[in-house]
Amino acid sequence: MNLRSDGKQILLHGMAMILAGLLWGFAPPFTPFPRLAVGAHVQLEMHGILFMVLAAVLLGLSHSVGAKAVRTMLVTVWLTWFMALTEIANAWWGANQLLSVAAKQAGAVGAAPWQEALVKLSHVPAGLGLILSFALLIAGFVKHREPAT
């Protein structure tokens, strides 16, 4: 793998997230907690756009973002998929410990302990990965020097 192919993978995942979010947009009325289902829809759309922009920046602008940093970004994409899938499942579970504001608005009363744990387990690494990915992206642009003309 190289920076270009990893960047393209990030782009494709972003597109796939948008498509998944659009398709999932039909589901909220059929779930026990439609407000949580809408949250999952918004997450898929938002992260899809975010990853498409990330890939466009990596593929289209000159930078000094290293291959390991881009690989970290690609791992973050996978972690974000896991997070989005648990949000979809949460439209049936009603977990309320980690996403307490949305859960309260949805009337969620809590889920089985393993479901609550899975929601937490998916959100924390994805959130930390997103923070790290964008810190690495910024660092790669800050340290980049344009060649003298």
Feature tags:
149 residues, 0% strand, elongated, single chain
Detailed description of the structure:
This protein is mainly alpha-helical and 149 residues long. The chain has one domain. It has five helices and no strands. It has helices at 3-24, 34-60, 67-93, 100-106, 113-142. It is elongated. The two termini are 31 Å apart. The model has no long low-confidence stretch (mean pLDDT 92).
Ordered list of secondary-structure elements with their pairings:
Blueprint: H1 3-24, H2 34-60, H3 67-93, H4 100-106, H5 113-142
Q: In percent terms, what proportion of residues is strand?
A: under 5%
For the terminal residues, how far apart are their CA atoms?
31 Å
User: How many structural domains does the protein architecture include?
Assistant: 1
Backbone shape: elongated
Q: What's the overall average pLDDT, rounded?
A: 92
Computed structural class: mainly alpha
For the secondary structure, the number of strands is 0
Q: Compute the gyration radius: what is it?
A: 17 Å
Characterize this entry briefly.
The protein is mainly α and 149 residues long.
